[in-house]
Amino acid sequence: MQSVLRVFASLWLTIPILLAIAAVLILATTGIGMDLSVGAVRKDWTRAWWFQGLLALLAANLVACTIKRKPWAFWQWGFLTTHWGILMIIAGASVSGLWKVYGSMPVTKGGSLDYVQLEDERELAVDWLGEEKRDAIPVAYNPYERELPNDAFAVPGATLRIRQFWPNVSREGPRAQMVVHGLDRELPVLLRMNEPVAGPGGLAMMLHEMTDAQHEKFLAKVRAEEPPRESQFIVLKTPSGFGYYLSTKRGDVRTGELTPGRRVPFVTVPMSISVELRRYVEVEAVKPEQNVPLFPAVEVQIESGGVSSTGWVLFTEDPEADRSRVFVLGKRHARVTFGPKRYRDLEMEVRLLDARQRNHPGSPNAAQYESDVEIRDRRTGRTHRATVRVNEPVTVRGWTFYMSHFDPSGPKSVFQVLYDPGTKIIYLGALIATCGTLFMFYLRPRIVKARDALTKTGAPLEGPGPGHWLLALAVPAAAIAASAARSPRFVYRLGLAVAVTWIVATAALATYLGIWVI
Questions:
Q1: pLDDT 10s digits, 457-494
Q2: Across the beta sheet with 187-192, what order do the strands follow?
Q3: How far apart are the first and last CA of the chain?
Q4: What percent of the chain has pLDDT over 70?
Q5: CA distances in angstroms from 79 to 72, 255, 425, 436, 448, listed in the order given
Q6: Pairing of strands 158-166, 297-304
Q7: 3-class DSSP assignment, residue 122
Q8: Which of residues 205 and 499 earns the better pLDDT score?
């Protein structure tokens, strides 16, 4: 037992642990991979089992060092207090790493949200249209590497399989590279989904995606209706391949299969041209950029009732930016959305009443962003109204709402939401460690000097003056000031902790010397 205690209490164990923790934090914040957000550091590093193991090993080292120095004397009061404070800091860091909630909440004026989009935690949401059924599937793959997981998940009446995960794809979405022939030169035309493009001779060109069943209905409708007298060329992307729809101002209508490299000739007033599909890109892997968040995508296959459908789903953080995909499985339709994981356990609903930008006097530059919010607490039944500004957050029941981004077109405000139960433990641990350190390096030498004076000469002790006590209280006071952004109740508790700690220290000093030092 003594040999184990010596190993754990060794300074040769302490130094490597501290160096390892410092190296991990430096690497995590300077960037292994390209996604440098707080959530990625928390999820990929500080929540990892090996980092929690480093913290546990450091805590065991401190406990062993403390036990080895038994029996404890009064002079070790500062040493014991400092170790106690460091252990509380480690405990608070572990609590924060495991239970901290950090994410965003984008709210448009007049709208409300009751969930937090967790940073760097992703999920697939499956909504069965017309059935009011919803399922959420975590997507927890390596955010920096392509994977082929082929993981299967059971959803209501179906099986969803994630076939591929790409960490970063182009944000442009599906697009078709077309070439128009018959002009002086080849005219390249880039078509994006549902975005009309004007071609030569008044030709309107578009790219649409539809299921095979929708394609059949579309063709039946074209055959039954009077042909429109307008020049259109529509590329139809279906699970089976590509088709096209062509109409001209002369009343001609043609449909057919479209394959890359094949030209479709037709006459449009006043010229004869042909259109060729050169390349179609549904998703395209791109190299990450420094300090730019990753934009992942997953290839999903859903099977229900013997019918299967496969397609890519792109990531989106904005609830109003629809990048979802509808999979048609016979008579059932599943809408799949790939986005941040939604945390709903805060039991609050945030409504944006108004948002505005205040400019510097005589300047169009923004001086401040403000958001008037109404926070309805479902747990207590209370409603809180407040104005959230940059650097002026609002805290309700431990949840802090920061003003992160403002979009005047909505207007829309994006709030960063933080809940960290370990912060109070860390602050209190830092306060206790500070008090112990001050005792070791400030009070203890004065006590030794006073004791020696009393022992040798019997002269009365001259206690420290007001300036000494102000200096001794400077660091705890700074801790209180730094926490002023927290709730008033927390500031009060910190102040109370400072007062109690220093009263105990002063009482111990007076008891030891047999006099009161004021």
A1: 555 544 444 444 444 455 455 554 544 444 445 544 55
A2: 187-192, 175-181, 271-281, 263-268
A3: 46
A4: 79
A5: 10, 85, 19, 6, 16
A6: antiparallel
A7: strand
A8: 205
